[in-house]
Amino acid sequence: MAKRKIIKIDEGLCNGCGLCIPNCPEGAMQMIDDKARLISDLFCDGLGACIGHCPQGAITIEEREAEEYDEKRVMENIVKQGPNVIKAHLEHLRDHGQKDLLGQALEFLKSKKIPVPLEEKKESAKAFSACPGSRVQDFRDEKPASSRSKSAVSARSELRQWPVQIMLVPSFAPYLDNSDLLIAADCVPFAYANFHEEFLRGKTLLVGCPKLDDTDVYQEKFVQIFKNNQVKSVTYAAMEVPCCFGMVGLIQEAIRASGKDIPFHQAVISVSGQRIK
User: Fold this and answer.
1) Of 15, 112, 123, 251, which sits most exposed with the smallest number of CB within 10 A?
2) What is the pLDDT, as a whole number, of residue 204?
3) Which has the closest alpha carbon to 6: 67, 82, 61, 74?
């Protein structure tokens, strides 16, 4: 066996809701004793389609010794579930840039003379088989750096990816690698009028609330992001209120836990919308 990325389920966090199960068409998970369980390394591709559907943040990606993922075995399981599941699996591979695995899947269908339920054109979010709000989308090539002066009024969004909520962003999302990461407390974009122009331009965005959300889950997500990607820098934009500053130590600890030396910067916005740091 070799080391590879594969899902990890925190039994303590899992509440047995089962929302992850239908979003794993590969069949790597089952509900056993009221908990989601990884039942086969062979079937888990490590891409984490299930992660965004876990309301408890119980599913993460880890790198460990595991049996090699077997696309042929997966397809043998998937074709039994019908064309909708086949389509969901093919879209899953396509949307994560897994060209080799997608090729293997298409070849399997061809060998079995099974119709390919996958349109060649890029499908809209409405047609996406999973929750449209958690579909990974990368806008970087569509939005080159603007040449507008800083004094000009920005009428264009500088957002380059989707999703942005910390709980929904997979730690392996392609836009995280080789990125300058902006982590923003979710009140900041509302309070600071120049958020896009001054903070967001050229950066990959993660948004969350350190007061209302589970920061333990955040810390584990940050560790996975920093370990799995080459992050060039991290900027944390916070409001001046005390509850926002809890994220500072959390991010810094996650950087240390990743074993990497990633430059960290902090910005602070007043409740009246002024930058004070």
Assistant:
1) 112
2) 97
3) 61
* Predicted local confidence at residue 114, as pLDDT: 92
Which pLDDT score, from 0 to 100, does residue 154 have? 46
Ranges in the chain annotated CATH 3.40.50? 136-269
pLDDT at residue 150, rounded to an integer: 52
Fold of 2-111: Alpha-Beta Plaits (3.30.70)
Structure confidence at residue 54 (pLDDT): 84
- Upstream peptide bond of 189 is cis (omega within 30 degrees of 0): no
Q: What pLDDT is attached to residue 126?
A: 40
In the chain, which residues have pLDDT < 50?
Answer: 121-130, 154
Please list the residues that pair with 138 across neighbouring strands. Answer: 161
pTM over 0.85: no
Residue 168's pLDDT is what? 87
The answer to whether the beta carbons of residues 131 and 52 sit under 8 Å apart is yes
Q: Name the segment(s) of the chain with CATH classification 3.30.70.20.
A: 2-111
Q: What is the CATH topology of the domain spanning 136-269? A: Rossmann fold (3.40.50)
